[in-house]
């Protein structure tokens, strides 16, 4: 099982997990983090030397790690687990397709939890829900985008606000509940910022206060959780 994403240090991390059977018992172990761009084969770079994380490149990275670093016989691999993005599962140029050329006995094992999270994140067609989530994200971004505004919120609330994860429904739920419990303090912080002489911050804070005081937002706030 593998996935790649950009971490907070702007490094394109590829993580690899092995699931295997010993004495009829299943084991699942994380084995490595890789800087994906540092691990790209020379043949997967463009003529100009540009590195691109295509499906072919990711597939080759995984193959190289399994064979060269861990000495695994790829014919003994029976499953490949990834998320459902096109760079992973494309029939023509996906990473899984590239790996299957070497792992001839393997089949793709999709991550159903990832599919569920994406479905839930995109499933709501209710305008008021989308508007409320959008307001929450705007408020969180407003405080996190400025050290000065962030300090005001931290002094009043006693902690910082975490973002609303778009692809993990449990973390999204926890983030909304955190926001709900902290709303009075958030209103207090926005009110303080709205009184600043600094025009951009004060104007934005006033707009966000109006959004929070909107009846649609209040109804969603009361009904959630």
Describe the structure.
The protein has nine helices and five strands. With 225 residues, it is α+β, with helices and mostly antiparallel strands. A three-stranded antiparallel sheet has the order 1-2-3, with no helix packed on it. A two-stranded parallel ribbon has the order 4-5. The two termini are 34 Å apart. The mean pLDDT is 88. InterPro entries: IFN-induced_PKR_regulator, RNaseH-like_sf.
User: What general outline do the C-alpha atoms trace?
Assistant: elongated
- Tell me how many strands there are: 5
Order of helices and strands: EEEHEHHEHHHHHH
Strand content: 15-25%
Quickly list its features.
single chain; 225 residues; alpha+beta; three-stranded antiparallel β-sheet; two-stranded parallel ribbon; 9 helices; RNaseH-like_sf
Per-chain topology:
Layout lengths: L1 E5 L5 E11 L2 E11 L19 H15 L9 E4 L3 H4 L5 H6 L6 E4 L1 H12 L3 H18 L2 H11 L11 H26 L4 H14 L2 H9 L2
Parallel strand pairs: 4-5
Antiparallel strand pairs: 1-2, 2-3
Offer a concise description of the structure.
By secondary structure, this protein is an alpha+beta fold. The chain has nine helices and five strands, in the order βββαβααβαααααα.
